[in-house]
Specification:
six-stranded mixed β-sheet, 11 helices, about 270 residues, Lyase 2-enoyl-coa Hydratase, Chain  A, domain 2, 2 domains, lyase, 9 strands, transit peptide, Mitochondrial_ECH-domain
Length: about 270
Amino acid sequence: MSAAPELHPDATPPVLRDRPEPGIVRLTLNRPKAYNSLSTGLMAALQAELDAIHADRSIKAVIIGAAGPGFCAGHDLKEIRANPGRQHYEALFRQCSLLMQSIVALPQPVIARVHGVASAAGCQLVASCDLAVAAETARFATPGVNIGLFCSTPMVALSRNVSRKHAMEMLLTGELLEARRAESIGLINRVVPEAALDEAALGFARTIAAKSPLTVKTGKEAFYRQLEMPLAQAYDYASRVMTENMLARDAEEGIDAFIGKREPHWEGR
């Protein structure tokens, strides 16, 4: 196992990239002094990394983690107050919304590796990832209501992960949730001791990287598309996806390998 990258507290750029294992990319938010708040610069850097990963067939899974004492404190409020005005606010939230949608649209599954606090847009980032593992000491919140700014954009991702009442509880109270509570309401998948966090995230990524990349891409896209459809439409759409999937070379190989009691050899087609 490759250890997490060693980071200097003042290191740049705002997002670091490494490959801990073949087929796996780890992106590390790297504004530790600002608790990895989502400045326009950090969001642009993360967007650029995701855009590059989107087209790279050698990458099978992505981990998003963070440097310093916490995962992400949300938007950079100092930057926001230094640039007041409708035009800047609209551009900022459009940039963030596109970033979150890029994670959902990425062919490769994205795993959030969470330690410390993930609040506001940081909690939105966790909710936007396909999977999430967190340290026992991690905390989650959408605390905008406490400063007169309802977490409306984080609400979009949050409400697509947890039930309405749990989402509204977080949004209306702004209170911090402990990791075990976040797991129980479906915001994250697993809670582990902080010392086991890297291995837990890598374990998910390693398992996914061993699957057919075509099958994973097909399934991820279909999962998010069918969620927004009425039941009958969702079944019609999923049946078409299954048919196309069955005609793929990897499906033939996977079935033949299962019948022949051997390991499959994926071709990604």
